[in-house]
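Is this the right way to post structure tokens for a design question? Let me know if I should format differently. Anyway, here goes:
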């Protein structure tokens, strides 16, 4: 069984395209904020918070729970097996093994700028985990049901693994986060770098690949809010290289 024609789903731009973000979402992040804020920034809440962190490996680079998401028996037989619990990255021989499940930081449950930043970083860790395992639960836990990009990427990864294939994942690394708060929403501008990535079919044949963007700060816009009912920050939408207006 082979995958459908290669789709541009795992690179930073590819991730954006899988969302089919209703209408022209380019600029819609800010439009949504404007609508929620009654046409302008909340004078009491409008503030900018910028944090820069050195690129670091995602929590998906240490050893923890095992989830391989349905590779074919022939590919699984050829997979390099790590020591008990040792993380093994995906390759042409098979999907990743013992991929550590990201843990939601306690700060995500705090209605503070630090909590928003923690939520943004955890969201990207959840995307990394999804790509390597086909387990959408961490991403769902930090995303609103209305997040088009989230649901579309989950479906794309599910199809890849459902057809017997797998993905290496891009290991998105958050290099910096700057935030602008407007009433109920916060717009986070995030600089991202990635590793080389590839998608394989059930026979271990590479059907899609993307070069690393390790030396770049690919710009993403992430729209999020603090959900008082859940008692945590949740992501409403994300878009690559968003433009205002």
């Amino acid at each position: 069984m082979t995958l459908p024609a290669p789709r541009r789903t795992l690179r930073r731009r590819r991730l954006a395209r899988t969302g089919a973000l209703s209408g022209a979402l380019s600029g819609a992040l800010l439009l949504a904020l404007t609508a929620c804020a009654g046409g302008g920034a909340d004078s009491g809440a409008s503030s900018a918070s910028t944090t820069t962190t050195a690129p670091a490996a995602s929590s998906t680079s240490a050893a923890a729970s095992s989830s391989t998401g349905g590779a074919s028996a022939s590919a699984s037989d050829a997979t390099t097996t790590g020591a008990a619990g040792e993380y093994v990255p995906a390759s042409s021989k098979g999907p990743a093994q013992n991929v550590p499940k990201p843990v939601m930081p306690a700060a995500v449950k705090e209605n503070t700028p630090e909590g928003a930043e923690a939520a943004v970083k955890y969201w990207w860790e959840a995307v990394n985990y999804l790509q390597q395992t086909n387990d959408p639960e961490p991403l769902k836990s930090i995303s609103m049901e209305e997040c088009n990009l989230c649901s579309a990427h989950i479906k794309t990864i599910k199809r890849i693994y459902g057809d017997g294939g797998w993905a290496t994942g891009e290991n998105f690394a958050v290099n910096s986060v700057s935030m602008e708060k407007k009433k109920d929403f916060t717009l986070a501008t995030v600089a991202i770098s990635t590793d080389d990535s590839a998608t394989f079919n059930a026979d271990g044949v590479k059907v899609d690949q993307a070069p690393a963007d390790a030396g770049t700060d690919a710009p993403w816009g992430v729209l999020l809010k603090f959900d008082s009912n859940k008692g945590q920050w949740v992501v409403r939408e994300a878009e690559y290289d968003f433009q205002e207006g």
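Format looks fine. Someone answered above. Worth noting: Residues 1-14, 17-81 have pLDDT under 50 and may be disordered. Residues 73 and 187 are 44 Å apart (CA to CA).
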